[in-house]
Amino acid sequence: MSKVIEDCIFCKIIAKEVPAEIVYEDDLMIAFKDINPQAKVHILLVPKVHIPNNLYLEGSHKPLIGHIILKANEIAKKLGIAETGFRLIVNNGTDAGQEVPHIHWHLLGGEPLGRLIC
Ligand code: 5GP
Ligand code: ZN
């Protein structure tokens, strides 16, 4: 079990101190439904170790990142959104609108999402 960072909502979800609709969990990560979904399917993929955002990733995290990205495919398949397409997003810092300073990948799909970059 990772050390719980006080006041980090995702650490609290990982520690089961705060409930969430968990769709997948293993030793390295947890995936749960976003409380304020921005698409029909909106899952957050969260490493159990508290890493604030992409800037804090180190070489030692490479296997963890690979694990999470590959699990995204499995979860997308399990939830039936793989064939129709999905988006994986990481918000980093203020200008990106990052609200929770514990790195997470948004997995969005289940409907047309529109283009982000034109
Ligand atoms: P960010 O803006 O940091 O990239 O994304 C944070 C996401 O976490 C938001 O989409 C927000 O709805 C979600 N979120 C914030 N607090 C909670 C919570 O307590 N439970 C769940 N399931 N999602 C949360
Ligand atoms: Zn945390």
UniProtKB/TrEMBL annotation:
Pfam families assigned: HIT (PF01230)
Motif (Histidine triad motif): 102-106
Active site: H104 (tele-amp-histidine intermediate)
Superkingdom: Bacteria
InterPro entries: Histidine_triad_HIT (IPR001310), HIT-like (IPR011146), HIT-like_sf (IPR036265)
Record GO terms (molecular function): catalytic activity
HIT domain sequence ranges: 9-118
Protein name: Histidine triad (HIT) family protein
